[in-house]
Design brief:
Strand content: 15-25%
CATH class: Alpha Beta
Shape: globular
Number of strands: 7
CATH superfamily: Vaccinia Virus protein VP39
Number of domains: 1
CATH topology: Rossmann fold
Distance between the termini: 30 Å
Strand order of the largest sheet: 3-2-1-4-5-7-6
Number of helices: 9
Radius of gyration: 17 Å
Length: 247
């Protein structure tokens, strides 16, 4: 990686979701809606979940269903400490997983056995990597046949570059040394990367076209727009979303 990942607070995404700028709250909350729509219907009490680059664990906690087993993986020990506290709390909740684990590692070298997970989440990670195909291959390796890989990454054929500039200018994201995004994706090259690695495409689209801007006016209108964006599977949104299946 080309930047200091340890400079990011372990609870950054959690704080952004709950106490950030209104657009930040919507941005991080919308990803939970994405999890509810694209992953949770396929999970059950026997499911094993892995999030690579879990950060504060927002997506992994949201994806956990009753009786599932969750594994948090991150380079940052700050993030893993925070996620463990959240998963420990979740065990006493209504969607209690049967257990969880955490490991400090990078996506290019997963210390995990082949074919052990039903779902792998790789969200906002591959844009930071010089060779993103290696992490995707590793994610596919640890998936069981029929398992799902959820990938999200900025769409550089959208308004994302403008949003990136605004976020930096308004100090809405943590400052990190070095260039943060070194691999740029759009619909065509992400789709080709996944299919070239032998994965099937179950869902391919984008989110955050108009919805983040509507969140500044009405959260309910923004949520309705996000639902339309998920349904339309267009290429216009600022975040690419793909669900790939191991064949």
């Amino acid at each position: 990686m080309s930047f200091d990942y340890h400079a990011v607070s372990g609870d950054y995404q959690y704080q952004a979701l709950h106490s950030g700028h209104p657009m930040q709250r919507f941005w991080h909350g919308g990803k939970l809606t994405m999890i509810d729509r694209l992953l949770r219907p396929h999970l059950n009490a026997d499911s094993r979940l892995l999030e690579i680059g879990c950060g504060a664990g927002n997506l992994l906690v949201q994806a956990s269903v009753y009786g599932s087993y969750s594994v948090a993986l991150d380079l940052s020990m700050q993030a893993l400490t925070f996620v463990r506290s959240r998963l420990d709390e979740a065990i006493s909740g209504p969607e209690a997983p049967r257990g969880f684990a955490s490991t400090q590692a990078i996506g290019e070298y997963l210390p995990l056995a082949d074919g052990t997970f039903d779902c792998v989440i790789l969200s906002e990670v591959i844009e930071h990597l010089e060779a993103p195909q290696i992490s995707i291959q590793e994610a596919a390796r640890v998936l069981r046949p029929g398992g799902r890989l959820l990938i999200t990454t900025p769409n550089y054929r959208s308004l994302w570059p403008l949003m990136e500039w605004a976020v930096d200018r308004l100090n809405m994201a943590p400052k990190m040394g070095g260039e943060q995004h070194i691999s740029h994706f759009h619909s065509a090259n992400l789709r080709h990367l996944l299919t070239d690695l032998g994965l099937g495409i179950e869902y391919f689209g984008t989110i955050y076209n108009l919805s983040p801007f509507l969140s500044l006016v009405s959260s309910e209108s923004a949520k309705r727009q996000l639902a339309r964006e998920l349904n339309s599977q267009s290429s216009l949104g600022m975040i690419l979303v793909a669900v790939a299946v191991k064949l």
